[in-house]
Amino acid sequence: MQLSTEVTQLCDEIRRFIQKEVEPRSRWIEENDAIPDDLVQKARELGLFGLTIPEQYGGIGLDLAGKCAVEEEMGKTNYGFATLIGNHTGISSTGIVALGNEQQKQQYLPRMASGEWLGCFALTEAQAGSDPAALRTSAVRKGDRWILNGEKIFITNAPVAHVFTVMALTDKSKGIKGISAFIVERSCKGLAVGRNELKMGMHGCTTAPVAFNDCEVPAGNLLGAEGMGYVQALKTLTQGRVTLAARCVGMMDKLIGKCVEYMKVRAQGGHKLAEYQGLQWMLADMAVQRDAARGLTERAIATLMRGERGTLEAAAAKLYATEALGKVTDAAVQIHGGMGYMREAGIETTFRDARITRIYEGTSEIQRNIIAAQLLKEQ
Ligand SMILES: Cc1cc2nc3c(=O)[nH]c(=O)nc-3n(C[C@H](O)[C@H](O)[C@H](O)COP(=O)(O)OP(=O)(O)OC[C@H]3O[C@@H](n4cnc5c(N)ncnc54)[C@H](O)[C@@H]3O)c2cc1C
């Protein structure tokens, strides 16, 4: 995909930042399940928190192609760090950019662009995961406030977020057409963030439940039109799926590079691993899957940037890239033999990190449902 000089330069700058600042701390982040404050500060100084926020609100204003190029780079470093930034600059702020009124944009975007305020996106509930339409969190208008009640689970960045984009039912009788989106500040009375979950991977990036107990939100914090929350959430998730696919491409790229390096150095039975055809074929399959994932991601980017819905294309990119990443990480462990199982090599970390990509932002099964539904509608 053709990228502007500015985006190419930004990616170069991010690559240097990753090499100098993130990679040396990656093991620390992994072991401590935390991201050092000074690293977050350096990311702020580089402008990483404002990637997708328009320049007039203090951000860099990347379009989807630019954001995906950055995500591919971020896929080559610590997954928790990449998710902290990717979530904030993706599903947690793009809704405000796309739907916020001028006052909301002025109020939230500059502080989100600078990274002073982090965002999170709260849709999932205990009974509403793959089926977000089953959500129960309610929002009732009382004078100049909305009163929210309910509980969200598995919310990325919630423990560190200041700005919560929350989906809640404003009219139970209307089903999904009764779901609205709200901007809720952490300081709102009645909002409580639960404990940080212990996870298989994605270490360093926090995930927690969020409870709303008669939580008072100013009337002006309704995001977009009342009853349009579900539609808006789906649009946000469609873009999020494409950017996640781009990150998976970067992760595969890095693993392939590691395998090539290892195969050229490691010798067994009097031969370098690179000389064994069985391993060569594994490597070839890994590269083809990475390239196919990139192709589907680029198709989805192009479709969305033409202003089309792109639901099928985004689902296909997400489905293929995340499933391919699963196969590629498995092959990378195998090529590294026993060393692939050791923390020292860094492959097992990616193996665990990769697993979440097939679950969040819609599971693989849900992506297949979306693709099949679209195909059946067209025929
Ligand atoms: C680490 C992490 C971070 C997350 N971050 C966020 C976040 O920031 N914000 C947020 O709102 N949510 C977040 N989520 C929630 C995530 O999007 C959901 O976990 C995901 O959508 C799946 O929902 P579920 O866990 O309830 O699984 P379920 O919906 O219970 O699914 C269980 C299984 O059933 C399958 N299944 C369900 N329905 C169907 C169907 N119709 N057809 C075929 N198969 C089906 C699923 O594919 C899956 O295999 C996060 C989750 C995790 C684990």
Describe the structure.
The chain has 379 residues and is of the alpha+beta class. The chain has three domains: 5-114, Orthogonal Bundle (Butyryl-Coa Dehydrogenase, subunit A, domain 1), CATH 1.10.540; 119-230, Beta Barrel (Butyryl-CoA Dehydrogenase, subunit A, domain 2); 234-378, Butyryl-CoA Dehydrogenase, subunit A, domain 3, CATH 1.20.140.10. 52% of the residues lie in helices and 15% in strands. The protein has 13 helices and ten strands. The protein has a four-stranded mixed sheet with strand order 1-4-5-8. α4 packs across α8 (229-265), α8 runs parallel beside α10 (311-335) and α10 packs antiparallel against α12 (347-355). The longest helix is centred in the middle third of the chain and has 37 residues, at 229-265. The chain is globular and about 80 Å long. The protein starts with a helix and ends with a helix. The mean pLDDT is 97. Bound molecules: flavin-adenine dinucleotide (FAD). Residues 120-124, 129-130, 154-156, 199, 202, 207, 356, 359-360, 362-363, 365-366, 369 line the site of flavin-adenine dinucleotide (FAD).
